[in-house]
Description:
By secondary structure, the chain is of the alpha/beta class. The chain has a domain at 1-15 and 24-91. 27% of the residues lie in helices and 20% in strands. It has helices at residues 41-50, 71-83, 111-116, 160-173, 192-196, 213-222, 255-272, 289-298, 320-324, and strands spanning 6-10, 27-28, 34-39, 51-52, 58-63, 103-109, 126-133, 151-156, 181-185, 206-210, 239-243, 278-282, 304-307. The strands form 2 sheets. The protein has an 11-stranded mixed β-sheet. It has a two-stranded parallel sheet with strand order 2-4. α7 (255-272) packs parallel to α8 (289-298). Residues 87-97, 114-123 and 320-337 have low confidence and may be disordered. It comes from Candolleomyces eurysporus. This is RNI-like protein.
Amino acid sequence: xxxxxxxxxxxxxxxxxxxxxxxxxxxxxxxxxxxxxxxxxxxxxxxxxxxxxxxxxxxxxxxxxxxxxxxxxxxxxxxxxxxxxxxxxxxxxxxxxxxxxxxxxxxxxxxxxxxxxxxxxxxxxxxxxxxxxxxxxxxxxxxxxxxxxxxxxxxxxxxxxxxxxxxxxxxxxxxxxxxxxxxxxxxxxxxxxxxxxxxxxxxxxxxxxxxxxxxxxxxxxxxxxxxxxxxxxxxxxxxxxxxxxxxxxxxxxxxxxxxxxxxxxxxxxxxxxxxxxxxxxxxxxxxxxxxxxxxxxxxxxxxxxxxxxxxxxxxxxxxxxxxxxxxxxxxxxxxxx
Length: 337
């Protein structure tokens, strides 16, 4: 199997608790470039415990666990890291590192909900982690996934608790210290606890939040400096991209209040750590020229505001909706909105 370049295995890995399966020495696949595995966590873990693949290989894993156990994720990532290396006899230079290098681009996506642009709550919710490592070519922009991720891991039936456990295991067992860009396109994630995993990274300079205003609110909450913080959260952050975010996600009618919260949070942050240099707003819902003017007046002059000028205003068809619940509000200039 020394020339094998592509391997695709679906629901056919040996059972992890099969005592009749004989123990064997580690299998090395030195020419492998594409590996796709679809099976439950214990079986995938066992595969990497017994197999070595080169770190140039791109790995796509789909976990089929119907009831995933959060405690199994750490062991899985440890086995993956151990098996995803160059075998010693392939290394000509003794100074070459055997292990996989650092993750520099991480994308947390819900494939189904992201494609629809709204939250989908059902038992088939998927969470996918896409990682690009330092030794692989990187995609040029957040809306491009080519070249493919070095590692793609998909988990079905995922809720926020399980998802946070998966991310925590990835952060602990794989190297994210050199992470430079983070994209979140998920309606379940991230929670405040998720952002806590990334707020201390010293090289993270690009953050993209797609679709979820709740995710934006959680980021703004974590990005506040507290008396317990020795260093400012997200110290290297330079660019914040908002894509497809609905500024009236909860149908409160208080869009200007949501926009003001964004501007105020970034302005407050700038006072103690002027890091963010560019705010990008594109294809957002319930964001118009008035909101752009509001942000322009709130943000520090050093922050460049980029807006695609797409106005997608979606309101309930019955104008009395806001009146019934007394949800009228005044905008930043004192006009009734």
